[in-house]
Amino acid sequence: MSMKRGLVRGAFSLGGARAVTSAFNAVALLILARLLTPHDFGVAAIASAVLYFIVSLTQFSIYQALVQRSEVEQEHIDTAWSIALIRSLTIVAFFVLASWPLALLYDDPEMLSVFMVVGLTGGVMGLYNPHIVLAQKGMRFAPMALFQLCRCVGLVAVVILAIIFRSFWAIIIGNLIGAALASLISYVMIPYRPRFTLARFRDLWGFSGWLFLNQLCETINWRFDQLAISVLVPKAQMGIYAIAYSLAIIPTRETIQPLREILFPGLANLTNDRPRLTRAFVRAQSSMAAISTPLALGLALVAEPAVMVMLGPQWSEAAVFVQIFAVTSAIGAFVSCTASAAMALGATRVVFLQQFWTLMARVPLVLAGLHFYGLVGAALAGLLSEIILATISLRFVRSLLGLPIFQQLRMHWSTLLSLAVMSASVLAAELLVNPTFEANIVRFILLVLVGGVAYVGTNLALWAAGGRKEGPVHELIDIAAQMVPARFKAVGPA
């Protein structure tokens, strides 16, 4: 199977699973926003920020090391699972010991039991079957897609519990149910009887060591503002900040993450053919940006009616944060494939360094922004940090693949121009739509249609005017053509 065909099949498997999961996420978010209060979301956000910090502190990316290795023996798989077991026990032990001090830190006795349950969630969420990840090495993405779909059970549990209890406990307990069921079902999908051993620890750690440091820095980069804010502001304000972030990252997270998951094993199979790997990287990065950036920037442009329609008027203060976070996500989409390329080449040190230098800038920027301009200042500091990360990523891609920075930027020229036309069109349409239509849902739909038509139309016009050359539009059309079953392609005129 060719890499492109494998990636296309993977994209449909994981993309389809992500689409379903995204739909569940969106519906759950809309329902929860009307059932729970900003204070409830604030409590859940605090617990989530602490959990994912500890998860990253113990995340060794051992399963990803299995994908990167050219030869994988049973001892490698058992060692990876054993390390995951030790990690899970460590997470549970940490929260058992730290729940009381953390409750004192947040001056809320009820947080003691919250952190205890969160610790169990962290313990079970990493104990899934390593064969689920290893299947991707052979370009088999269906197991991972089914594994992701299992997480929808947790979302259903969250909503049901929210309807019953109207409390933040719905999110805390629902997440535990979802994580436990997903891990359990992974062993049903691919039978595997683990055996405890650390015999191949050194083989796997050579790849995973830098990724562990990268994961830690990346989590601090994305969670540091929430960790700092959660201590300094009331839980209700924390809830507004957190729900805005959750809404804003949906467009890029749900389009980029499944593509990144299939891109890494695809590029890993091309490490012996550097020119082909470079071409695959260019196609993937330009296509990914062309898909995800209009969704993110489009959400920023219609943030105010989007918040009113999706979350309700009680969350109106979240609109400005949605705008900032959505623009931040759009910038990150332009360099989202850097880590996949570095991991495929075994250059995990590069993955770590891009996050490390960004972290060195982000911490003082967030603290300064929060001190001088409050929550908006912290959000803007995150935006500036993402620009720094993008700049660093461009330099690393140049050193890894020999692609000049100008060439990396040039591959996005049609996307950037189309985004500019889309933005101008939406802003112009707002002058007519906002005074004419009072209903937020009508304004939202009309502005989305204007932006979508402007972006797609500009891209197609530029592609046609340029002689229909290779690029993101050509690549996406080619991928769409591969979606058509062969029996329909063979049908011609009578």
From TrEMBL:
InterPro entries tied to this protein: Poly_Biosynth_Transport (IPR050833)
One Pfam family in the UniProt entry: Polysacc_synt_3
Keywords: Cell membrane, Membrane, Transmembrane, Transmembrane helix
UniProt topology in membrane: Multi-pass membrane protein
Membrane-crossing segments per the record: 12-35, 41-63, 84-106, 112-129, 141-165, 171-192, 289-312, 318-347, 413-432, 444-465
Transmembrane helix as UniProt keyword: yes
Record's subcellular location: Cell membrane
Major location (coarse): membrane
The keyword Cell membrane is annotated on this UniProt entry: yes
Family: Belongs to the polysaccharide synthase family.
Protein name: Lipopolysaccharide biosynthesis protein
Classification lineage: Bacteria, Pseudomonadati, Pseudomonadota, Alphaproteobacteria, Sphingomonadales
